[in-house]
Structure formats: structure tokens, C-alpha cells
Amino acid sequence: MTSTPMTPTTEPDPRLASTDAAVRRIAILDLADAEDDDDLPQLTAALRADPAPEVRAEAARVLGGWNHARAVDALAQALLDADEGVRAAAALALGELKDADCAARLLPWASHLDPSVRAAALRGMKELRISAARDPARRSLTHPDAGVRREAVGVLGWLKAVEALPEIARLAVGDADAEVRRGATGALGLASGEGVAAVLPALLAALNDAAWPVREEAATTLAKLRAADSLQALIAAMDDAAWQVRLRAARALGRLGDAAALPALVGALAHAQGNLRKEAAIALGEIGAPQAAPALELATADPDPEVRKVARAALPRVRARGAA
Asked: What are the helix (H) ranges across the chain?
């Protein structure tokens, strides 16, 4: 699909004038299958003016495959449709954009007063990484609607907007919405070098968040950053009530490579969740401390074949360290 100006060169599909909404919907699907840019005006007209919400929603869905300025304009306008289903279909379609030039047409909508419209516009621009989205996304970090804040964090994360890390860190710690806190916690992984120390307090606070997905995200981000000052907090996280948090903490401890984590990781080899036992065995192999050899020996008889496989792979490394 192109984004060049168009003038219709094909005859209108007569089915779009039918009084039967089902016939009009089939016509929309057929036009989409043809993938002819000359049919785009008929599709946008159907989205804008068809009396049946189900036909407008179908037009929105098929326009998601058209990376064309006119399609983007029509979909953005459909975010204000009277029907909730049409609005949802338009928002999903905008999330399928592949052309950054077309996504730029969403910029005015990223400051819209309607929260759902603003969120959809930010979502549509996110994966395309258009730099012009930085400012509206950053302004939206303080929006009263949680959905807008979530999308704003996502945009800034994809853009690797390190300049926004202080604001994102505040959201990770203090936002009222758990999903916003989770997204912000993950975005703190953008930090590097001296910037890691600046975001570490927020990550350690997130590691004690009331919502386990936020704690899990904090452990995941700490694994990415490999911050040595997080060692004791990650060891404590190995007693978390959620095994998912323990698993991510084990991964982080393996990357830190500190033998102080051995007792917590050896203890995890007895957990009922096989995935956690596997991750603990991997971490013990990464640390490579000879003291882990007896526990890994036992793990070679684990009922889970994946745990056995990991333990067998880790043992030679641990034994070699001990022999040295």
C-alpha cells in the first residue's frame, strides 16, 4: 500500500448502496481482499457514514491493513464514533500501522481531550518509534486516566527516552494503577551506566509492591541491569509469595553471580513449581560456586526432565571451579 494522493478510478461497488447491512459488510470484505488503493475512498466512506455499526466496524478492521494517510485519518476520526464497537475496532486498526509517515498523522490526536482517543493515538504510534511522539507521551505521564498513562509509558519505553526516567520512576513507585506501575518498572530498564543508581531505589521499592506482577517486573528489570546493590533485595525476593517473582529473582541472582545467593537458590530446588526449580539450577550454574555441586547432583534426579537437563549441564562447570 502507498501513501500517495489518490483519485477514485473504479466504479463504486453497488452492494454498498444495498439496504441490507449484511450485503454491505460482504462488499467491504471483498474490497479488502482486492487490496486495490482505488477502493480506499469507498472503505473510508463506509467507515464514516454507513448507518450500521457492524458495517462501520468491519470497515475499520479492514482499513488497518492500509498504510495510507487517508485510512489513518478515517480511523482516527472513527475513534469518536457513537458506537463503542466501532471505536474499539478503529483503535485496534491503528495499532497495526507499519508506516511511520502515516503514524505521524496521529500526533494531533495524542493530545485529544477524550482519554480513550488519546490512548489509542499513543498506542498507534508506539512501535513505530516516531520521535515526535516523545513530547505528547511525556505530557501524558500525568494524565488523570490510567489508560493514557500506560500508553505514554509504552511510547517512551519504545523510544528509549532516558530523559523521562525520573518521571517514569515516580510512576513505578507511586501510581495508583498497578498496570501503570508495572509498565513503568519495566521501562526503567532503559537506564545504563551511572543512570542505574538513579533508578535503583524505585526498582527496589517495586520489588515490594502490593501487586505481584509489579514485583515480577522489578526482578526482571534488575536482572537486565545487573545492579550489584540489588543483591540482598533479590535474595529476600526468593521468599516471595508468588513463584513468578521468585523465578525472576533467581534469574537476576544468576546474572549477578554472587555466591551469597546460594542458600536461597538451593532452597528453590525443592519448590513445587518446575519452572522455578529449573531457573534456580541455571542460576547455580551461572554462579559456578563448588558448594552448589551436591544440590545440583540431587537435581539430576528431579521429576522434571528440563530441571534434570539443566542440572546436568551446570555440574561440570561447578566441578571444574571446585577442582581449580
From this structure: 21-34, 40-49, 53-63, 69-78, 84-94, 100-103, 115-126, 134-139, 146-158, 165-174, 178-187, 195-206, 212-225, 231-237, 243-256, 262-268, 274-287, 293-299, 305-323
